[in-house]
What does this fold into?
Amino acid sequence: MNSVFNAAENRASLERAYINYTRAGIKVRGLITTNPHNPLGHYYSTEALLEIARFCNKHSIHMISDEIYAHSTYANEQFPNATTFNSILSLDLSEIIDQNLVHVLYGMSKDYGASGLRVGVLQSRNKNLTEAVSAINLLSWPSFMVQDMWARVLEDTAFLQYFFRTYSERLTKSYSHVRGYMEDHGIEYFRGTNAGLFVWARILPYPEDNGTDEYSKLKERFLEICLGNGVNIADGDSFIPDNPENGWFRITFSYDEDRLSVGLERLTRSLRQIKIEMLS
It folds into this structure.
């Protein structure tokens, strides 16, 4: 899984994908990166981002950087020197890629915990794109009250420093809690995280040679049990994972300790139930 963050390996993977899609008659027009990665919770290095930009420029592909979790960062004592956030807006791409191909997405939903306000930002120098989006946006314009509120927040430097410091401290505490759970229960998980609100974990390992259909049935039943027990986890297959093994899920941990403990207890109960059903 770490290969996705290696500049050279990621570039080679992108080139292979481009060739395969082209041979299949599919026109590749854009590449979207989520930085930090969702669901692995790891930032891309500067060199990895530059290689993606070089790839996009070579094939005249739009480079779209979704940075919605940019400030959702925390300390991981297992990786004290983990990569930190670099927006593509902070990089000098002038000699690397046509600036009309570079676009950045951001919003209040994740870093500010304000998904209900439905306000976001598209930054682009592509005049054709911004004019097209502006026309569409007339049908879903966020209220001026919301725009003014967010502007005031962004202009309050002292508040932002306090807010993101507190946010990071709370995420660190919650991540430590869920990581301890994984360790105590012998659950495989991606360890190189320091960003985002989730852990990528192989909660329901299932032998590959038992068949995809059988696993699909087992997974659906497991998710049904989880919902019945009042805990919601994200089906790993929804993220089109690079790792081929069955059983991966995304667990969101951005809750206070009491709620997180209740959720993990319900997850334990669900795992116990599915194992009993598998043996019966």
User: Anything to note?
Assistant: The first strand starts at residue 30 and ends at 34.
